[in-house]
Amino acid sequence: MDLDLTWLLWGLPLAFAAGWLASRFDLHQWRLEGRRAPKAVFRGLNQLLNEQQDRAIDSFIEAVQNDPDTSELHFALGNLFRRRGDYDRAVRVHEHLLARGDLSQKDRDRAQHALALDFLKAGLLDRAEAALRQLEHSAFADEARQALLGIFERARDWPQAIAMAEQLDKEHTGAYQLRLSHFLCEMAATASKRQATDEAMQLLEQARTRAPDAPRPHVEIAALQQSQQQPDAALDTLLALTATHPQTLPLVAHPMAQLAQQTGRSQAVRARLEQLQPTPPSIDVTEAIAGLSTDPTIARGTYLRHLESEASLVMAARWLAGESLGGTQQQALVLRALDQATQPLKRYRCAACGFEAKQYFWQCPGCQNWDSYPTRRVEEL
């Protein structure tokens, strides 16, 4: 029986034509999708430059749908959601990335870090801590430890904050001795509230050893000594502090004046305050000097000398309080108006974020930075 090869003559060209058409169709689709994705990306970048975040997000979502395997588009989209405050969608984007089996280890660590930042910005500290701990052996390890330190500070978990700061300090990723001193002072404050004065004093001595140049341990030790009915020891602590760190004088001038009156050392302390009065003069130091003067005329002269060196509405109000303004009722009205006007000028202002407060803070309640408050009042800045 002869083999009929006629069907091969027809079949081969048809198969070739079908394969060629299929390849052309796939190539056309690939080119079409490739053109759509870059256009959406470029459109999104342009909208970002024009500060149109909502429209940029829509463009990036379109780009991700056209090219779902591109991790960079997912990272860009997740970062946009986070910056916009849409933390739920940012978390979903980064969790979707982590669920992919074809993601490289580098991109996986990057997605894990981004997810931790999503939780951190959303205030989900427990989930942020768990996500950050998974980055221990990654390229983001240092950043993760610093973020964990911030979490422990916000949670006021000082033992864990100390352990993390010591680890960072050993790895030479920054100087953390001053922050360690603050952490020990915070623990001492907690112990003092429990009436555990011996424990509090030990912690403060450790804080002073950690950071000998830090003023806070000396200030806290003096306050603890005063609470233990040791005014002479407390005053000596503050005098020693101002001798080595005169820039702290405005912060401790009032406690020094109070302790001087308790110990009968007003004249010596007043002389020290006058000797160390900075230039331009400090409102707090001037008030402390005036408070140690038994003669009202001498006190008013102290305010006047301040005004001669530096214009100050606060000092002007203090000086006017001793002047006769033509009647008790009229004088009370004027002094009340001046007191109301000077209240905002007596506040402390954070140099990092501008948060203002009536009292001095070692850690800003607004931005959580340490030692960001100058020792001078708003009027003096």
TrEMBL record:
Cytoplasmic face residues: 24-381
The primary site where this protein sits is membrane
Domain of life from the UniProt record: Bacteria
Please tell me where Fe cation binds in this chain. C350, C353, C364, C367
Q: How does it sit in the membrane?
A: Single-pass membrane protein
> Where in this chain does the entry annotate a coiled-coil region?
none
Compartments where found: Cell inner membrane
**InterPro entries under this entry?**
CellSynth/LPSAsmb/PSIAsmb, LapB, Rubredoxin_2, TPR-like_helical_dom_sf, TPR_rpt
Q: Which Gene3D superfamilies has this protein been placed in?
A: Tetratricopeptide repeat domain
Pfam families documented for this protein:
TPR_19 (PF14559), TPR_7 (PF13176), Zn_ribbon_LapB (PF18073)
Q: Does the keyword Glycoprotein apply?
A: no
Membrane-spanning ranges = none
Q: Which UniProt keywords apply?
A: Cell inner membrane, Cell membrane, Iron, Membrane, Metal-binding, Repeat, TPR repeat, Transmembrane, Transmembrane helix
Q: Where is the LapB rubredoxin metal binding domain?
A: 348-372
Any keyword Membrane? yes
General function of this protein: Modulates cellular lipopolysaccharide (LPS) levels by regulating LpxC, which is involved in lipid A biosynthesis. May act by modulating the proteolytic activity of FtsH towards LpxC. May also coordinate assembly of proteins involved in LPS synthesis at the plasma membrane.
Q: Which family does it belong to?
A: Belongs to the LapB family.
Q: What is this protein called?
A: Lipopolysaccharide assembly protein B
Protein encoded by which gene: lapB
